[in-house]
Amino acid sequence: MPTLTVPQMRERFPTLATSTYLVSHSMGAPPLGARAALDAYWSAWAAEGSEAWEAWLPEIAELADNLGRIFGAPPGSTSLAPNVSLLQAAIGSALDFGGDRRGVVIEALQFPTVTYVWDAWRRFGAQIVEVPSDDGRTMSTDRLCEAITEHTAAVVLSHAAYVSGSVIDVVAIGNRCHEMGAIFVLDAYQTTGIYPYDVSQLPVDIVVGGSHKWLCGGPGCGFIYVRPGLRDSLAPAVTGWMAHADPFAFEPAPIRLATSAHRWNTGTPTVPGYFAARAGHDTILEIGLETIRAHNLRLTDKLIEGAQTRGFSVPTPLEHERRTGWIGLDFPGADRATAALIERRVFVDYRPGCGIRVSPHFYTSDDEIETFFRVLDEVRRYA
Asked: 267: how many CB neighbours lie within 10 A of its CB?
């Protein structure tokens, strides 16, 4: 019998009082602390005007280090950005595609924004190698490793597939990257805040992600971790004045890049997006990822049981270690059922080939899982 886990911090998330919120894999529920942070941002702007930067910039650096604690990053190794698309472009701009190492290995199950960015680097000499999926849900470790050769400059993979929640073998792939001399870029947007990982214990070079899913931080706060021993060897060309070693010196080009993680900054930072995310990050740290994961696994097991009892297809991996934090439930008419659920304020989403995606988080109760199935049975009955 699994140990009973309990929902936590529900009082900090007012949306939970008026809905059944099971869509944290797409957008985490907003914490009250985010509203307080935005109010404080406006108050500082109103009171101090341009002098507010004196407090804002150190706070952004501290916020980045605080976020890095969630995945084991040492202080000074994490920087913030508005989104992962910008960060992926910056990574590409730091690579040299003029020599023998021109290959970039990506995967067929990657979120489209990543493929758009890397496909654009073809015009600058990159040779994009897209590894197919055998089943449309998972990526073969063997096939990925076989694609990584002495001509590979970088390997850019999702920690978990957005279409199935299937997690890749980071250790095996990372070891292959380092054996071949390739940089391993892990996109952990789908896992950060729900699936524990520690960058200090994994063979990863760069990790990117964002805050609006499991981290409950809202849109506008992406992040990049770069392994400290690699940082100074990469000089991104996608840059801006905030990447300068002394931005307020206003020196002419060429840029003198910061010797810290801030060399990955670009232009003027999106301060409100960063500050709004802090409350979600703090909540994750306060509860602890191991506790969050245990609660999520118990409730996702309950979702799988309910789906299988009803004869639904479950395209998500069943094994705990092979999946992130959500479960797919598919059946004929799942798209229409999703719309009907949302009308009744049972928040989930739908993806073709995956069905209804349902994600319990640390604030989800057993009663809400039961509510989901009760309402789902009702809308299917009257569909």
From this structure: 12
Cα–Cα distance list, 132 to 109, 284, 324 (Å): 8, 34, 21
| Burial class of residue 371, CB neighbours in 10 A (0-12, 13-18, 19+) | middle
What local confidence, expressed as pLDDT, does residue 383 receive? 65
The model carries a pTM of 0.97
Inter-helix orientation angle 271-287/289-309, to 10°:
80
Contacts of 309 (CB under 8 A, 6+ apart): none
Rounded-to-integer distance, Cα 262 and Cα 240, Å = 11
Distance from chain centroid for Cα 294: 19
Kindly report the backbone phi and psi dihedral angles of residue 339, in degrees, each rounded to the nearest multiple of 5, phi listed first: -60, -40
3-class DSSP assignment, residue 333: coil
- C-beta of residue 32 within 8 angstroms of C-beta of residue 13: yes
pLDDT in tens, 47-75: 999 999 999 999 999 999 999 999 999 99
Q: Is the Cα dihedral 264, 265, 266, 270 positive or negative?
A: positive
Instruction: Write down the pLDDT at residue 253.
Output: 97
Token pair, residue 183, equals: 């940089």
